[in-house]
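During the practical work, I selected for study one protein's amino acid sequence and its backbone structure tokens, as given directly below:
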Amino acid sequence: MAEKYEHPYPSPELESQHPFVTYEHVRLTEEEMASRGADFYEELESRRSVRMFSSDPVPQKLIELAVKTASTAPSGAHKQPWTFVATQNLEIKKAIRAAAEKEEEINYLENRMNEEWQKALAPLGTDHHKEFLEIAPWIVVLFEQRYESHSDETISKNYYVKESVGIAAGFFIAALHRMGLATLTHTPTPMKFLNEIFERPKNERPFVLFPVGYPLEGVKVPDLKRKDLDKIFICDI
């Protein structure tokens, strides 16, 4: 039975101020939905973070398509508080690697990451060496826009910035995997050096760095297992 609403949405007052359109939706059968959902799950279940990349070039149009896909993510008040900055310039990639490894060396060797943290990372085989930052054909940095800065020097607030940018990051990763590309979420804390390298404005802050490319042929990844559904899902309590 169709739901009945006491009040119209949107209200005539709201629709007069902001345009609304009819949502185009095709309702599938339960079997079709289950089939599509299972296919999507199987595809993403095969995704892995890759730390060894081929240097083979990747067309810019694929990066642009992944960013466009990421920008379909929901965001607080539809502010879309993100900037994706991409480079394939070798000198810039070298500068990023040098700065990242400097921070990571402090993290790993000078114990900025505590013993428990390093123990948790040990099965992944990571250390302060980040060759992939130079070898991967693309480096894409996702910046969060803490607020909007306008040409008249005024500013306006963004809402749920980290939540919004985090969702966009997930869409970006899924889009890359769908196209047959690999990536890795890299956060060499602190990441302020990325603002300096890319000359980004002060309202932006690095959120995550993605090396993007084809995985190196024969590359090995940790044999990770995802948590079972009963460990992450509670229903009808």
Remarks:
- The longest strand covers residues 204-213.
- The beta strands are 82-87, 138-145, 147-149, 155-157, 182-183, 204-213.
